[in-house]
Amino acid sequence: MKNIFKKYQLKSWIKTGALAFSLILASSCQDAIQEDVISRIGNDYMNTAKGLEDGVNAAYTSLRGWYGTERGHNMTEFGTDIYTNGSDGSWKFMNTYSNEFDSQNGLVRELWDEFYRGINTSNAIIDRAPNVTGMAAATKSTRVAEAKFIRAHNYFILVQLFGAVDLQLSENIVPSRQVSRAPISEVYAAIITDLEEAIPALESGKVSVQYGRATRAAAQNLLGKVYLTRATSAAGQSDDYAKAETLFRSVVATGFTLMSEYSMVHQFGNERNDEVIWSIQYTRNPLTNGGGNNSHVFFLMEYDVQAGMRRDTQNGRPFKRYRMTPYAINTVFGERMNDSRYKASFIDVYFSNRPGTFNTSFDLSKPSVTFAQGDTAIFIPGFEMSAAERATKKYQVLVPSRYDERLFPGLKKHLDPGRADLTQFQGGRDFIAMRLGETYLALAEAQLRQGKIAEATATINLVRRRAAFPGRGESMVITPAQMTMDFLMEERARELTGEQFRWLDLKRWGVLVERVRLHNEQGAPNIQDFHALRPIPQNQIDRAEGGPSGFPQNTGY
């Protein structure tokens, strides 16, 4: 880990100025994790009841380094079979797997540092809690369990991205260069121990009394994913899938329910719904929101310079970073008569917010278009339309043959019209990290891997029925003969696109290289087997005792 920083890692939450989740209060500060700005606090503060509470809240902030950020999306969407690069941004090499993707990668370094800060803050909480007085024993037990959940979460992401990592399970205050890369079997064992110890002490309801805190169901869901992932690693155990299935069934039994329509899951203003198991809290308060949830900018096309359009908060600030691959458009989302998920996930129409007469740009079936406020300006049907048919329309039609790095169907799951202005980067929407739809798909995977084909089929059909347009549910049902890993891979893409799962899924299944070569034209020429791990940050290696021999780089970087 980044040990030269250990001296201040315990205090890093003081220096950031934000001690807890950023949050949107539902009714009062008692309904969500309280967030205050505190400064000039000494090391002994953590030995008090209030200090321990604030320390736990601070540990949660490390999760904002992953969810809803450019680094998190780049490491999970780029370089997969369903997303490739758009026109803008300086991180395209993470999609193309060129030699620019090396140990100097700033996003890798930032994530490594932030997660280890969260780990060391969690370590401090766990180590110091026994000597803290003035706190009810049950509350203290729950806070320690939350710290173990956060530590386990951070190590789980790290071991998937980097393989063997530095395993620190006690607080570090004095800087040290003595670090090593623990075998992944030891990392997984530590993660599992943390979660098994945390589960009984966490709140048992669907959501925490203070919304945003980890619950028993969230820890069970995370542990299920840990077993599901470990099963295909070098540390895999024969009973991993069976354990995962049991845990996912426990989560389902907690009482979460699928939204009646898929479009409701990510509907703006509905981030806290009965399908959400656990989410990362953001806020509209710039003092405590940190970098904010930035997901809203990355998946959008260049709509704002087209005829009849200008940038606004409703349609978003288009960074043009991620666009679907042809495979995603034509195959994954190819069936749209019964399945609502293409329609619910992607923008298909823009309404004019700049009235007037304009020359056409991408749709040359007519020389000009004229719009009043609110008229359809751009229609993206998702299928080809002849020039003759397009010429009859009073708006521009963007057809698949005209898609490019600037013009493509944009993902609308993360749109944030609640931003203060049209340029604001720091979004305030909660980021849904765990939801029942994904848990059902993980359960189906665990069942399928055990040869429980009928059970896996029944489970996945729950997700598919919900994804149907009204009245089309039975048309979405599949048979056991159709229940294969290839089908499940595509089903997860349909259900979870843009939700920070895909790269980790492909790695877990051992098909990252294969599927990028098949479906990602930009990434195909350069991807190699070693790209299933990310590079260890060079500054971490430089600070380790012995340098590269003491903390070796992953092969290929």
Short description:
With 557 residues, the chain is mainly α. It has 20 helices and 9 strands. A 3-stranded mixed β-sheet has the order 4-7-8, with no helix packed on it. Strands 1-3 form a two-stranded antiparallel sheet. Strands 2-9 form a two-stranded antiparallel sheet.
Give structural notes.
The protein is mainly α and 557 residues long. It has two domains: 3-291 and 533-549, Serine Threonine Protein Phosphatase 5, Tetratricopeptide repeat, CATH 1.25.40.390; 298-402, no CATH class. The chain is built from 20 helices and nine strands. It has helices at 6-9, 12-16, 49-60, 70-74, 93-96, 106-128, 137-162, 184-198, 216-230, 240-253, 295-298, 326-332, 341-345, 387-391, 436-449, 453-467, 485-496, 502-509, 512-519, 538-543, and strands at residues 83-85, 276-280, 322-324, 349-351, 356-359, 368-371, 376-379, 396-397, 431-435. α14 (387-391) links the parallel β7 and β8. α15 packs antiparallel against α16. It is globular and about 75 Å long. It starts with 5 loop residues before the first helix and ends in a 14-residue tail after the last helix. The model is unreliable at 1-30 (pLDDT under 50).
Q: How many DSSP helices?
A: 20
Shape descriptor: globular
What would CATH call the class of the largest domain? Mainly Alpha
Proportion in helices: 25-40%
Sheet-strand content, in percent, reads 5-15%
Order of helices and strands: HHHHEHHHHHHEHEHHEEEEHEEHHHHHH
Mean pLDDT level: 92
Name the features.
globular, 2 domains, mainly alpha, 20 helices, 557 residues, 3-stranded mixed beta sheet, two-stranded antiparallel ribbon, 6% strand, 37% helix, disordered N terminus, 9 strands, Serine Threonine Protein Phosphatase 5, Tetratricopeptide repeat
